[in-house]
Amino acid sequence: MRMIEQDQENDDSTEVTWEDQQKINSFSKLNTRMKGFEAKVDAAKQEKEALDDLSIELELADEDEPVLYKIGETYVHMSLPRALKRLEKDQTDLDVRLTKLSESAQQCETDMKQLKVALYAKFGSAINLDE
Which contacts (CB < 8 Å, 24+ apart) does range 25-34 have? Predict the structure, then answer.
């Protein structure tokens, strides 16, 4: 029993040159890097949501009482005005980090599209570069 009809079967014996193999390897590296960037962007977006929620909570906090603010893995008592300044700085830093990650992911995607065009032009359906 055949899985593919005989007329659909590709018997393209397109030779894979060293340059082609380098392009395939580059595509694979970019794809892996892209997935890493996407994971980091997702984590940063979750952190941004948490900081936004914290901002709302601090607006409701009593100004006379110290608040617990997480720095790394530690919670520190600090005054409300100082916590608000720290929160603003953290949000700005996170926005910058998110922008850089998004730009890097976009560059990977652009490079991958160029490699896809070149590889599909040569190999056609004999190569699969989609997930």
Answer: 26/111, 26/115, 27/112, 27/115, 27/116, 27/119, 27/129, 30/108, 30/111, 30/112, 30/115, 31/112, 33/108, 34/105, 34/108, 34/109, 34/112
pTM of the model: 0.77
Q: How far apart are CA 100 and CA 103, in angstroms?
A: 5
Nearest to 24 by CA among 118, 125, 124: 118
Tens-place pLDDT, residues 56-106: 999 888 888 899 998 889 999 999 999 999 999 999 999 999 999 999 999
